[in-house]
């Protein structure tokens, strides 16, 4: 103890308190018991009690120092435009941002994967329910058919149900086709080749066409129309020029 006091006297400087800012607090008041806490009551092995005693001692020192600083007109609050340089560099903060961003993206990807798995499970569940329902309907219909064949039942309600279901499906598909309409490829083929229908035997005569002679033209039928000449019926426009005419044409071209 004497050695500590001697070192303290050597280190102590005769300066104003505002330059030293040292505070020696008295016994700290416990806020729970509202009484001075005994130093012997604090167990040094108990981390919580030890840290709380340090906290209360620092709090008492601050409460004692603040009025003295205000009396000396020393500002104790940080101004609004105060700028403090960060302890970490911009490169380090950029690395931290990239790491946080990668973590967030990984969490989003995992969340999307979870949603997709849940949707797949739900789709499989719906599909299995539909298949089970169809199997049940098929089984019921087969049972009804067997009963009817054995003479145990004389009702044919299952046929009506099947017809109504098939008609409903056809109506639904027709409405879908009407709403959707043909695609561009189908429209182009319709425009180019027509809309289908009977091709083979389309030019055969019928009873009505055989009796109808209003469109018959004898000149056309007997090869006597305009532009016909000679026995063979060759066109006059396609007559080949004679040999002398051809030679004259060649000499002119030279």
TrEMBL record:
Keywords from the UniProt entry: Coiled coil, Nucleus, Ribosome biogenesis
Organism domain of life: Eukaryota
One Pfam family this sequence matches: Ebp2
Membership in a protein family: Belongs to the EBP2 family.
Gene coding for it: Ebna1bp2
Bias type Basic residues, positions: 115-124, 177-190, 231-254
PANTHER family associated with the record: RRNA PROCESSING PROTEIN EBNA1-BINDING PROTEIN-RELATED, RRNA-PROCESSING PROTEIN EBP2-RELATED
Cellular component GO terms held in the UniProt record: nuclear periphery; nucleolus; preribosome, large subunit precursor
Biased composition (Polar residues): 164-176
Annotated function: Required for the processing of the 27S pre-rRNA.
Protein name: EBP2 protein
Disordered: annotated span: 99-126, 158-254
Lineage: Eukaryota, Metazoa, Chordata, Craniata, Vertebrata
GO biological process: ribosomal large subunit biogenesis; rRNA processing
InterPro entries noted in UniProt: Ebp2
Membrane-crossing residue ranges in chain numbering: none
Localization (cell): Nucleus, Nucleolus
Basic and acidic residues: compositionally biased ranges: 102-114
